[in-house]
Amino acid sequence: MSQREILSITTGRPTSDGAGVSLTRVFGGAAPERFDPFLMLDEFGSNDPDEYIAGFPPHPHRGFETITYMLEGRMRHEDHMGNVGRLESGGVQWMTAARGVIHSEMPEQEQGLMRGFQLWLNLPAHAKLGEPGYRDFAPAEIPQLTLPGGVQAKVIAGTLKVDGIEQPGVVQRPDTEPQLFDLHLPAGSGISPQVPEGHRLLLYVYEGALRLGEHTLGKGQLVRLSEHGEVRLHSESGTRLLLLAGRPLGEPIVQYGPFVMNSREEIEQALRDFRDGTLA
Each residue of 142-188: pLDDT tens digit? Predict the structure, then answer.
């Protein structure tokens, strides 16, 4: 089988969100269909409290799921459903906004490094107004594997299939069937994870350099691959990357800030519901 083709290589752009948190928007905004079923990926990381201390005060969401993965630091989640979660280094928070969630994410530290990612995953039309949900996972709950060549893998969502090994992650989702892996490749190592045919595949290098065919990707670069073929990853000097894969929904995507629906009318309804206090 031939290798998956590179469709695009991009670099994230600096921005801020929440109450002034500095971050890098890896993708999100224009032409979200390119990344279907994924809507947005942000990377945050700073030793300067002024760049994260204001956090994300209460705000709404509707129509999709948010996944927060912490590398370093501590965040506190609270929502209108009464959930309170403490997200620690190596932990994961998975929130299904569905018909509506109002939540906050605030730092539980006043100094030191805070680093991690937030990913937005779309919901299909039939689930956008379903029941919301929230779950956080401690680092010890997330499967971690050492593979041939010393490759380290954290399996957050989906099932990692490689070298005859099948390791399910802590989250399995219908419809979009997402895979989310954190892969650490030592210098001179490689890995060929099996990604389902037809799934959208994104790789984000957040440390080191990744070799993909004839291309070398550096820190802060995102590559979007074709939906068919093998995946062969290699690093000559060592790398850490996120692998994101999911089944495209192929539905209209209409976004207005924290609301992602299938039509403008549904967005207008979300705005009315939020204004009237009935969104969540």
Answer: 999 999 999 999 999 999 999 899 999 999 999 999 999 999 999 99
Spatial neighbors of 112 by CB under 8 A, at least 6 apart, are 47, 72, 73
Q: Which two tokens stand for residue 185?
A: 């490749």
Per-residue CA distances from 47 to 50, 75, 115, 119, 132 (Å): 9, 15, 9, 22, 33
Domains and CATH numbers, the chain: 6-268 (2.60.120.10)
- Beta-bridge partner residues of 203: 223, 243
pLDDT band at 271 (very low <50, low <70, confident <90, very high): very high
Kindly compute the dihedral angle of the four CA atoms of residues 194, 250, 30, 55, in this order, to the nearest 10 degrees. -70
CA–CA separation, 212 vs 248, rounded Å? 23
Buried b (16+ CB within 10 A) or exposed e, 64-102: bbbbbbbbebbbebebeeebebebeebbbbbbbbbbbbb
* Structure tokens, 16: 């801020």
Residues at the binding site are 59, 61, 103, 105
Residue 192 identity (one-letter amino acid)? S
Using the predicted structure, report yes or no on whether residue 266 has a pLDDT greater than 90. yes
Residues making up the annotated binding site for Fe cation are 59, 61, 103, 105
Contact 182, 137 (CB under 8 A): no
Q: What does the pLDDT look like over 4-42, one tens digit per residue?
A: 999 999 999 999 998 899 999 999 988 889 999 999 999
pTM: 0.97
